[in-house]
Every structure is written in structure tokens, then in C-alpha cells.
User: Which sequence fits this backbone?
């Protein structure tokens, strides 16, 4: 599990740097994954759907690490949806719908 910013610090600068690295989406993959994990700890999820801007490298790297981490460590089925919110010619709406429907069916089957 990614570390939480709860250590003892000698200076305010040390504390602020650790908080930024743990909380910033663009500063630390583990910080971003940890923030999401701490959020989902408070709700009962059957699965996790994460859509990301596939043309944004920082989000693409985090999404792959996130899927692997949630499936292996948290035991939470995860579906990644790569989209382009600026240009819908870069993805197929029908393909996204098919993937969502298949993921929902898989989650239903696991509940039975």
C-alpha cells in the first residue's frame, strides 16, 4: 500500500513535499493510487471503472499501475476505459459500451 503522509518531520518543507508527492496526480503514481484506494475503502464496491485520457502520458502510466495494484493487492476487478474527451474520432463509443456491458456481466456472475 502506498504510504500515507503521517511521518514525523523536522521541517515544514519536508512535510509539504511528502504531502505533495502522496497527493498529487501528476507527482506520484503511488500517491494517486493511494488517494483512490483510501477513498474506496469507505464504500462497498463490486468493481472499479477508471477512464483516462489515453493521449496524456502521466494518466496512462498511472492507469496501468492502478489496474494491476487494485486487482492484485485490493482484489477489486478494474476496467480501464481509454477515451479522448477532446476528439471522439479516437475511440469507438460502441466498443466502450460493449466493454462496459461485459464488465457488468462479469461482476454479476461473480456475485452469484
Assistant:
Amino acid at each position: 500500500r502506498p504510504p500515507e503522509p503521517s511521518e514525523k518531520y523536522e521541517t515544514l518543507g519536508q512535510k509539504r513535499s511528502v504531502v505533495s508527492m502522496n497527493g498529487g496526480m501528476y507527482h506520484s503514481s503511488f500517491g494517486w493510487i493511494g488517494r483512490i484506494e483510501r477513498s474506496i475503502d469507505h464504500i462497498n464496491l463490486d468493481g472499479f471503472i477508471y477512464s483516462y485520457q489515453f493521449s496524456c502520458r502521466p494518466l496512462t502510466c498511472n492507469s496501468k499501475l492502478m489496474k494491476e495494484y487494485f486487482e492484485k493487492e485490493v482484489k477489486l476487478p478494474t476496467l480501464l476505459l481509454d477515451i479522448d474527451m477532446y476528439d471522439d474520432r479516437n475511440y469507438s463509443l460502441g466498443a466502450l459500451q460493449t466493454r462496459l456491458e461485459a464488465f457488468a456481466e462479469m461482476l454479476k456472475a461473480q456475485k452469484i
Summary: Residues 93-111 form the longest helix (19 residues).
